[in-house]
TrEMBL record:
<dbReference type="GO" id="GO:0016491">
    <property type="term" value="F:oxidoreductase activity"/>
</dbReference>
<dbReference type="InterPro" id="IPR012347">
    <property type="entry name" value="Ferritin-like"/>
</dbReference>
<protein>
    <submittedName>
        <fullName>Rubrerythrin</fullName>
    </submittedName>
</protein>
<dbReference type="GO" id="GO:0046872">
    <property type="term" value="F:metal ion binding"/>
</dbReference>
<dbReference type="InterPro" id="IPR003251">
    <property type="entry name" value="Rr_diiron-bd_dom"/>
</dbReference>
<dbReference type="InterPro" id="IPR009078">
    <property type="entry name" value="Ferritin-like_SF"/>
</dbReference>
<feature type="domain" description="Rubrerythrin diiron-binding">
    <location>
        <begin position="10"/>
        <end position="60"/>
    </location>
</feature>
<dbReference type="Pfam" id="PF02915">
    <property type="entry name" value="Rubrerythrin"/>
</dbReference>
């Protein structure tokens, strides 16, 4: 079961890295459409991170309830 929690944490780290990457691309471009695109990708990744954190906490509670 710990492997599942570790996998979720790894996925959260991936989402955070993606956010940083898209923010960097947002800063590098002057094109308004590209900025909007990267801004949306950052928002998407933030939402993915939040969903994963919620699942992590729920799964952690489930594991503790089984003890």
């Amino acid at each position: 079961m710990k492997e599942i929690l570790d996998g979720i944490l790894e996925a959260i780290d991936d989402e955070i890295r993606a956010q940083k990457h898209y923010k960097m691309l947002f800063e590098k471009t002057d094109d308004p459409m590209a900025k909007k695109f990267f801004e949306q990708l950052v928002t998407d990744e933030e939402n993915h991170e939040k969903a994963l954190r919620n699942r992590y906490e729920a799964f952690k509670k489930l594991m503790n309830a089984d003890k």
